[in-house]
């Protein structure tokens, strides 16, 4: 009997401006599986422990990508996003394995989660060229004017990805941000970052322009304040503050007020943050929060 | 060109009956405020118009409780059709008492009667009329599944369009089933207090609308009150940020309509006579006390001299003076504090090297006045190109290419409005796409309508007011987050 093959392991790095760098800080941290039953947690990988500088580099990349992505036709954005779903499907085995180990799921459950994540991505891909008609339109003003309102992306959205749902939750917060023409700096789940990096590999190979999505892994409580206070970030999604160690979402929202970022608060009541049920149909609010309405007037006349 | 003298044509103030003192309108009744009463004056004469109560923290608490009771027991349970009928009533009473409201507004604010009469008051009535019709149709407004009211809304409004801003705030809030506690600005409370009387005439259920007067501390008490579910604020970016900070970490929602430094961009193929009218309207309408004012004129270099000449000639015909005179184009500055701020920023403009010009017109001996003023040779780093002056002061910059115009127009933390003047349709549409502003006026400026969403990008705030979009701020839906 020949010995089992020694497999080739993957190095999990950051995803910034279309490339996969290590953290400039040189730091990494051990990622463990969520065990099922009485098994012990299993070492999965050393993930990059992103720093303030990595987050700032990601913002620079995201700013550089705004013009091209927001300026792309909605049809084109839909095509690119659909392509992401295709590539996710082709990397299905890896995603299932990542989710299974990260979340401690039975194989069949992990399969179902990945299916839901891919379907969620397809759902958002289809929205790109419909939103303007659903949200915008002609305003019947009392005068001889053509007056029209249409949605436009806000710009750069910092996203605190959910801590528990490492793929379906991640997709549910990233897809609406970029479907609407924004660019994203995503802070992956601290304890379960691997599906985020695998998703980044799908993005990198699906015609999503560099910088449109940037993924930073590391300590949420360390990096999130820098993004919340960053003056070139236009909006922040605080969903991932739920169950994040050392994160006070109220403090992040206060920091975000410095340049009046659009803020999507975590679900929950009062100061409690809870992770939402990702299996429900999403609705529009994750997109509309990161959209501006522009209204244009022009006189009519001969 | 011969200059004709105008005979005075003052609107009579006899139509207005100002009381010597006003209390707070809470739970459908007038109560005395527990704070220190303050005076509201006519900025055109410095005459005291009335004593106005200051709402203390306890008064605000009473108002919020009255609003909560009205919300729980009456307003949130009433059918949309019935809510709408109250709003229709209010719209009609505003129309019936339009002249009275216009004169009162001009007295308390200093704006020309032709603006309060032809813009502020008719638009306020139109806002109530428009939203009245929404009250029983919210399910059709694409707001998400099952739109429901939010609860008690705290609203804080500025002094530049007192009644109109009240209408922008109260009409959508009530249409969607919320109740309100509204604070008018401390220098312009009188039309809001008259509006309270209109609510009584309409027999609006007690506590649905509560009007509390006061200054910053009263506003802060509203914002920080735990019984308030949503804040709607129009005012400065500085205060807007402090509101955003103070509700951080709570479940209170907010819409903020804040400052601006709009670029009004004139290309060399623009219809110049119309453009000059648009420039004048853009910055001298309402003494420039307009958050979306076209305070930065960007003019293409090849026509800069021509525009400058025509603009100054036109400005010399503006009539500055008695707000109640029907011929007046530019009225009084709303307060001494605002006059001081305008004087400070214009002095900075001169000190930084821009060239100052004003019409040199005569100004009344009493009251707060500022001549229509134009700065040329302004560069982007000058304070008068960066900071909101909120007065009748235009800063002129030049550009060569459309790309340069866009870069300069967007070079500000604000993003409320912008203007484009050109005969080329494709350029209008391209420019409109590039400008980071919530409202873009092409070959027109300063147009407002209840059906048309208004609000800013970036540090000009968030949320929209008016139109279907404006309803979003006043409902909660079954949409999961």
TrEMBL record, chain A:
Residues annotated as domain Aldehyde dehydrogenase: 42-264
Keyword entries, A-Z: Oxidoreductase
Pfam families reported for this sequence: Aldedh (PF00171)
Keyword Oxidoreductase assigned: yes
Gene3D superfamilies attached to this UniProt entry: Aldehyde Dehydrogenase, Chain A, domain 1 (3.40.605.10)
InterPro entries with a match to the protein in the record: Ald_DH/histidinol_DH, Ald_DH_N, Aldehyde_DH_dom
Alphabetized GO MF terms: oxidoreductase activity
The keyword GTP-binding is assigned to this record: no
Protein name: Putative dehydrogenase
Organism: Nostocoides japonicum T1-X7
Phylogenetic lineage: Bacteria, Bacillati, Actinomycetota, Actinomycetes, Micrococcales
UniProtKB/TrEMBL annotation, chain B:
Enzyme Commission code: 1.2.1.3
Keywords, alphabetical: Oxidoreductase
Annotated signal peptide: none
InterPro entries: Ald_DH/histidinol_DH (IPR016161), Ald_DH_C (IPR016163), Ald_DH_CS_GLU (IPR029510), Ald_DH_N (IPR016162), Aldehyde_DH_dom (IPR015590)
UniProt domain Aldehyde dehydrogenase: residue ranges: 30-476
Residues annotated as transmembrane: none
Active site (UniProt): 257
Enzyme class: oxidoreductase
GO terms for MF: aldehyde dehydrogenase (NAD+) activity
Xref: Pfam families: Aldedh
Family: Belongs to the aldehyde dehydrogenase family.
Protein name (Swiss-Prot/TrEMBL): Putative aldehyde dehydrogenase
Source species: Nostocoides japonicum T1-X7
């Amino acid at each position: 009997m020949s010995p089992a093959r020694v497999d080739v392991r993957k190095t999990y790095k950051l995803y910034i401006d279309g490339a996969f760098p290590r953290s400039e800080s040189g730091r990494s941290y051990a990622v463990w599986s969520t065990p099922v039953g009485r098994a012990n947690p299993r070492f999965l990988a050393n993930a990059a422990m992103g720093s303030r500088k990595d987050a700032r580099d990601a913002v620079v990349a995201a700013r550089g990508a705004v013009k091209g992505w927001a300026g792309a036709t909605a049809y084109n954005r839909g095509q690119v996003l659909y392509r992401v779903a295709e590539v996710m499907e082709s990397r299905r085995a890896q995603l299932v394995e990542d989710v299974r180990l990260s979340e401690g799921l039975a194989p069949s459950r992990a399969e179902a989660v990945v299916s839901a994540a891919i379907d969620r991505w397809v759902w958002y891909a289809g929205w790109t060229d419909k939103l303007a008609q659903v949200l915008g339109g002609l305003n019947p003003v009392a005068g001889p004017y053509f007056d029209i309102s249409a949605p436009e992306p806000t710009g750069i959205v910092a996203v605190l990805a959910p801590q528990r749902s490492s793929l379906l939750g991640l997709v549910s917060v990233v897809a609406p941000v970029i479907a609407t023409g924004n660019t994203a700096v995503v802070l992956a789940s601290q304890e379960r970052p691997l599906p985020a990096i695998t998703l980044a590999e799908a993005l990198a190979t699906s015609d999503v322009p560099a910088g449109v999505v940037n993924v930073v892994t590391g300590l949420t409580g360390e990096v999130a304040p820098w993004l919340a206070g960053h003056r070139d970030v236009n909006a922040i999604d605080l969903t991932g503050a739920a169950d994040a160690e050392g994160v006070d979402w109220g403090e992040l929202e206060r920091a975000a007020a410095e340049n009046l970022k659009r803020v999507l608060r975590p679900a929950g009541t009062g100061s409690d943050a809870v992770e939402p049920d990702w299996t429900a149909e999403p609705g529009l609010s994750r997109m509309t929060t990161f959209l501006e309405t522009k209204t244009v007037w022009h006189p009519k006349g001969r | 060109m011969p200059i004709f003298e105008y005979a005075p044509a003052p609107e009579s103030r006899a139509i207005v009956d100002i009381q010597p003192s006003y209390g707070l309108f809470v739970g459908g009744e007038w109560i005395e405020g527990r704070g220190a009463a303050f005076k509201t004056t006519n900025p055109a004469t410095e005459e005291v118009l009335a004593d106005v109560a200051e709402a203390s923290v306890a008064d605000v608490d009473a108002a919020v409780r009255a609003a909560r009771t009205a919300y729980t027991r009456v307003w949130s349970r009433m059918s949309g059709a019935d809510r709408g009928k109250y709003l229709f009533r209010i719209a009609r009473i505003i129309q019936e008492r339009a002249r009275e409201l216009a004169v009162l507004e001009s007295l308390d604010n200093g704006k020309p009667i032709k603006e309060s009469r032809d813009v502020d008051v008719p638009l306020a009535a139109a806002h109530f009329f428009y939203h009245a019709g929404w009250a029983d149709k919210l399910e059709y407004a694409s707001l998400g599944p099952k739109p429901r009211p939010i609860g008690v809304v705290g609203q804080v409004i500025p002094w530049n369009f007192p009644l109109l801003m009240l209408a922008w705030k109260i009409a959508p809030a009530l249409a969607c089933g919320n109740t309100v506690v509204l604070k008018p600005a401390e220098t312009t409370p009188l039309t809001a207090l008259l509006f309270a009387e209109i609510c009584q005439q309409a027999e609006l259920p007690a506590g649905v609308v509560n009007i509390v007067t006061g200054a910053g501390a009263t506003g802060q008490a509203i914002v920080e009150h735990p019984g308030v579910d949503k804040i709607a604020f129009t005012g400065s970016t500085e205060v807007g940020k402090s509101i955003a900070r103070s509700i951080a970490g709570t479940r209170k929602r907010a819409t903020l309509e804040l400052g601006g430094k709009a670029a009004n961009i004139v290309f060399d193929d623009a219809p110049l006579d119309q453009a000059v009218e648009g420039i004048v309207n853009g910055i001298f309408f309402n003494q420039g006390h307009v958050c979306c004012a076209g305070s930065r004129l960007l003019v293409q270099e090849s026509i800069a001299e021509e525009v400058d000449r025509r603009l100054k000639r036109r400005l010399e015909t503006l009539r500055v003076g008695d707000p109640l005179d029907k011929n007046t184009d530019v009225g009084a500055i709303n307060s001494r504090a605002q006059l001081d701020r305008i004087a400070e920023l214009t002095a900075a403009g001169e000190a930084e090297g821009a060239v100052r010009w004003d019409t040199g017109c005569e100004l009344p001996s009493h009251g707060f006045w500022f001549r229509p003023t134009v700065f040329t040779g302004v560069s982007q780093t000058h304070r008068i190109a960066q900071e909101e002056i909120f007065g009748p002061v235009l800063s002129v910059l030049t550009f060569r290419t459309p790309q340069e115009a866009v870069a300069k127009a967007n070079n500000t933390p604000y993003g409320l409005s912008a203007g484009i003047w050109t005969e080329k349709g494709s350029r209008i549409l391209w420019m409109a796409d590039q400008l980071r502003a919530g409202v873009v006026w092409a070959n027109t400026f300063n147009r407002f309508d209840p059906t048309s969403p208004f609000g800013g990008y970036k540090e000009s705030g968030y949320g929209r007011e008016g139109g279907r979009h404006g309803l979003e701020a006043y409902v909660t839906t079954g949409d999961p987050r």
